[in-house]
Amino acid sequence: MKLRIRGNRSIRMLAAMGATGSLVAVAGLTSPAGATPTVSISVASLVPGATAAATAAFNKQVAQFERANPGIHVKSTQYDWTGPTFAADLAAGTLPTVFTVPFTDGRALGQAGQLANLTKYAEQYPWFKEFNPAVIAEGTDAKGRIIAIPEAAYAQALQYNRGLFVKAGLKPNSPPTTWAQVESDAKAIVKADPNAAGFAVMGASDNTAGWILTTLTDAFGGRVETGVGAKAKATFDNPGTVAALNMIHTMRWVDNSMGSKFGLSWGTSNQAFAAGQVGMFISGSDVYTNMVQAYDINPGIYGLAPLPLQGKNAGVLGGGTLAAVKPTASPNQIAAALKWINFYYMQPLSTRQGAIRNANALLAQKQPIGVPEFPVLNKQAFVLAQKWIKPFINVPVKQMASFTNGILNDPLIPEPESVTQAIYGDLDSVVQSVLTDPNANIPALLNAANATGQASIATGNAPS
Fold it and tell me: How many helices and strands, by DSSP H and E, does the chain display?
């Protein structure tokens, strides 16, 4: 999904991949100092509720950009991607000029003409040739047009609260490596703190419940969809999904280790975790940034580990975020938008000056630097980027070491290719039923949802 890497900018320690050392410039759209801006664009900034420090850090970067590009005026717009709200904003035409979408949405939106064609603009930048082919493919439509710029990638991970681990007599430097250990640790956490959820799953009707169930399915060796496009098949009733739901049912109704809040979404999961109300939950490897920016997490409680894998074909679901431009933007606005994407998203990944500028801006406002993500560009640039940002890293990297040391050995599983968000949405109700009904019939729920999922595939791939 990520679902996004929804929204907040941090230096990308594990995604920074650039090899050039100077700022990139593109001809046009500049005016003499002091001149009236010749083009205005709006850009997605932080999620609603971001801290004053995070907002100040973002505004500082906007000011730096405008000083370097006096012909461009930038208006920041709060933005938080969710399936339903994005669809509404897209239909109403209220998206900013530059916004972000998950990997899952880029190609479909591009095919439908709902994103601007960025090809001739993106090709002017050195970083364009540095992309991992599999990553830039997420921003390329069937005609070979670049319709979005990959700016970050992630792998799903187990977030765990070190403070609750200590309280429960568990070892915070030894997070669980099997699902049986997750269950056992969750029971210990609830025994030590009855007000906490030992393990929580997202259960909101915004595609997040289905996203996490898909993650668990992959981790148990199953897949919720096979094939691509119109030929895809919904396979909700596979053994991996059944095993995942049985685990959720046991932890919810037998162990009573899942707490009492079952409508959590991406942001509210981060909030509950930062508040010490959740011992463990699954989300992208990058969510520490949001916990700092929006929920003022105590760094000492944060732990990050790879997902346990069980089964022959088990793997870790991965995804990422694309920076896109709305299709109604004028050529001058698209060119200006690419300058912003270059400055804000890509220079910190591809140039020493950009990485240090970004790090200094974040450091001044005590924002996270060094949050684990997945490489976007090439290995040579990754090594350089680590050298560039090493003096600035301010996140508890030792508490994330279990993830960073282990994830490179795990197979990454891409998100379902066909009508991804619809598939997640079709699975939401299954998770909700298991969380709210002790007698939920898991095979029957999956059979019914599978028919709905297959209909979503047919509808989503029908000729327009």
Answer: 18, 12
> Which domain CATH number covers 142?
3.40.190.10
6 in a structural domain: no
* Rg, C-alpha atoms of the chain: 22
Structurally, the chain folds into a number of domains equal to 2
443 burial via Cβ count (<10 Å: 0-12, 13-18, 19+):
exposed
Tokens of 55: 């907002």
Residues 175 and 191 in one domain: yes
| 147 lies in the same domain as 179 | no
> In this structure, are 293 and 163 located in the same domain?
yes
Residue 1 covered by a domain: no
Query: Does 35 fall in a domain?
Result: yes
How many Å apart are CA 324 and CA 102, to the nearest integer?
10
Q: Whole-angstrom Cα distance, residue 319 to residue 86?
A: 18
State whether 341 and 360 are in the same domain.
yes
- pTM here? 0.76
pLDDT tens per residue across all 464 residues of the chain: 544 333 333 322 232 222 222 333 333 344 444 555 689 999 998 888 888 888 888 898 899 999 999 999 999 999 888 777 888 888 888 999 999 998 888 888 898 899 999 999 999 999 999 988 878 888 998 899 999 999 988 889 999 999 999 999 999 999 999 999 999 999 999 999 999 999 999 999 999 999 999 999 999 999 999 998 889 999 999 999 999 999 999 999 999 999 888 999 999 999 999 999 999 999 999 999 999 989 999 999 999 999 999 989 999 998 889 999 999 999 999 999 999 999 999 999 999 999 998 888 888 878 899 998 777 887 777 778 878 999 999 999 999 999 988 877 788 888 998 899 999 999 999 999 999 999 999 999 999 999 999 999 999 888 76
Q: Can you give the residue range of the structural domain that contains 58?
A: 11-154+319-407
Query: 237 in a domain, yes or no?
Result: yes
